Amino acid sequence: MLFDDRTFYRRNTDKPVLIILHQEHSSPGRVGHLLLEKGLSLDIRRPVLGDPLPATLEQHAGAVVFGGPMSANDDEDYVRREIDWLAVPLSENKPFLGICLGAQMLVRHLGGVVGPHHEGMTEIGWYPLEATEKGRALMEWPSMVYQFHREGFDLPAGAELLASGSTYPNQAFRYGENAWGIQFHGELTRVMMHRWVVHGAHRFDLPGAQMGRAHLEGRMDHDAPLRAWMDRFLTHIFQRQGEKVTA
User: Fold this and answer.
1) pLDDT tens for residues 105-139?
2) pLDDT attached to residue 240
3) What are the phi and psi torsion angles at 13 (to 5°)?
4) Are strands 179-182 and 144-149 parallel, antiparallel or unpaired?
5) What is the rounded CA–CA span in Å between residue 243 and residue 239?
6) Residue 194 burial by Cβ neighbours in a 10 Å radius (0-12, 13-18, 19+)
7) Which DSSP state fits 48?
8) Is Ligase among this UniProt entry's keywords (predicted)?
9) Distance (Å, rounded) from C-alpha 186 to C-alpha 64?
């Protein structure tokens, strides 16, 4: 199933998960597929195109904010509004997941710093991941993950670090009971990765970046564990002991 329209995808009568995307043709990809497989529904919105964000998540099971080419430090109105809007899931203690830009927006909302590596290094391709003690207590993590970013973040006050990397040390964290952020991408389907490799080829000469061939070859070796982890992670966020988190 493709996710190119701003619409609802329903598999049952439960409250949908709010999906926030940042480009006209962006897709929730594997995350969308996995949520649908779990019996949840999707409410896809693109604030950059003028879609409103709800004043409350009372009618939603939670929210996922995805990545994008912009920076959480940009001075665009929609970026500032989206960062401010994160007060909604936090104050209502709703399940929330930020992926890459979404995680960086959460960091900014919590008063943390988002910025480039001090030596200009990037992570574009496949890179090792190491779970912390708290992360390992939560679940098994993949040893390699897919990255596509030039900025990272510090750990917000009160957050728990769940996974780390050598170049960008803060890779996954939890804040409070239900807010989660990951720097890496577990949502890419094969088609999405091919598209990213084509449209992002101009970035492969940046410090630390891998050539496109390594992205596609790495997928054959590393994607299955990443997909299995993404499935478990979404279950942990949006389902508890087999019960859907929709209240």
Assistant:
1) 999 999 999 999 999 999 999 999 999 999 999 99
2) 57
3) -95, 5
4) unpaired
5) 6
6) middle
7) G
8) yes
9) 13
pLDDT digits (tens, 9 = 90+) for 55-87: 999 999 999 999 999 999 999 999 999 999 999
DSSP state of 211: P
The DSSP code sequence of 81-92 is HHHHHTHHHHHH
Task: Choose among 17, 21, 28: nearest CA to 47.
Answer: 21
Exposed (0-12), middle (13-18) or buried (19+): which is 5, by Cβ within 10 Å? exposed
Strands 114-116, 17-20: pairing is unpaired
Q: Which two tokens stand for residue 147?
A: 């990255």
Q: Which residue has the tokens 């900025």?
A: 151
Strand ranges in 129-184 using DSSP code E only, listed in sequence order:
130-131, 144-149, 151-153, 159-164, 172-175, 179-182
Work out the mean pLDDT of the chain and round it to a whole number.
92
Report the predicted TM-score, pTM, of the whole model to 2 decimal places.
Answer: 0.91
Is the pLDDT at 2 greater than 50? The verdict is no
Which structure tokens are listed for 90?
């936090």
Tokens 């009618």 correspond to what residue? 59
Please give the single-letter amino acid code of residue 106: L
Please tell me the number of Cα atoms within 13 Å of 10 on its side-chain side.
7
Cα separation of 224 and 244, whole Å? 25
